[in-house]
Q: What sequence folds into this?
């Protein structure tokens, strides 16, 4: 039995990421976001959406500088990530308040948060405002990772990155769970004409 | 110690969703996607990105019909979801092959996959192609849910929806994990000036 629910931009589950940019004075701003997705393989691009109707200093800084980084907070950084999503950069020096530090990115004019183990340097290529949010698509021009989350092939492991998943419906953070199946593989059972039962 | 990684559109972790649309003959197409995010609260909108350089019949169907649904496969549907992401609708009747069925959506001209417990009906409002992928932003005009994933307040539970998380880096599906913290709450420790240690 299907039932219609109250309309909302269903956002469960989504990754939790922190976007960071320099303001016009070169000060690092950051905000925690759930509205994020990769959007192109060639060249590699990603898109974030930030509320344009609210007080969002990081949005202004990204539009000013044309660059930002995104980083993945881990399950031990939920408190810091949550505060960076709650407070406004107009009123708080959020990065300093949570005890974090930044270094200028290698390829773009944006801050990398040193305490995040995986950071992506992004150059803005498209901006469009639809509804309440501004969508910013950016090309990935560098990815920085801590060594300790990489395997011998240079691939990071979610078991070591331990990213935060956001559950908007119940307003909570979750960890990523156990492996269910191999992608681009388990489904081949249907090509072989096998029943999965 | 930070290290630069090979460039890619880092997509770990992302939700796994299935987009469905009618082609010009009214036949239901579907494809599994990891490039998806909510993008506006007011009105509720979401954005998907589909590879425009590859054979993607569902993309053509969405551009033709101006509407689609997205649905959430669960951990028991990884095999079906994977096949719908592997095969092309030009060569396969994927929905029938996995034993699924569709019903016309209530508010848009698009198919709802009956076997998915949460489906969102979407009306296309913006299209832009950046890099290899076409980004389609759509307004959420209806959400259909099976009763058995809802709580008494009409909110769905990820513990009952059991969505698939996609890990591009290791090409596998994961389950959502355990609760880490309450969002918009745990971070307030910093407002109170408390140390979290």
A:
């Amino acid at each position: 039995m299907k039932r219609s629910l109250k309309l909302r931009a269903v956002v469960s589950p989504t990754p939790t990421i922190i976007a960071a940019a320099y303001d016009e004075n070169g000060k690092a701003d950051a905000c925690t976001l759930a509205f994020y997705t990769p959007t192109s393989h060639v060249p590699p691009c990603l898109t974030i959406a930030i509320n344009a109707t609210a007080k969002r200093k990081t949005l202004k800084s990204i539009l000013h500088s044309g660059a930002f980084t995104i980083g993945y907070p881990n399950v031990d950084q939920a408190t810091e990530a949550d505060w960076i999503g709650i407070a406004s950069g107009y009123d708080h020096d959020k990065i300093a308040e949570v005890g974090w530090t930044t270094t200028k990115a290698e390829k773009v004019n944006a801050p990398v948060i040193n305490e995040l183990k995986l950071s992506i340097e992004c150059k803005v290529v498209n901006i469009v405002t639809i509804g309440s949010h501004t969508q910013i698509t950016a090309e990935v021009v560098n990815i920085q990772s801590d060594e300790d989350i990489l395997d011998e092939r240079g691939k990071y492991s979610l078991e070591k990155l331990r990213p935060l998943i956001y559950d908007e419906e119940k307003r909570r953070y979750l960890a990523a769970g156990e492996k269910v199946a191999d992608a681009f593989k388990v489904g081949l059972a249907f090509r072989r004409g096998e029943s999965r039962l």
Q: What stands out?
A: Residues 14-191 of chain A form a domain with the Pnp Oxidase; Chain A fold (CATH 2.30.110.10). Chain A has a mean pLDDT of 94.
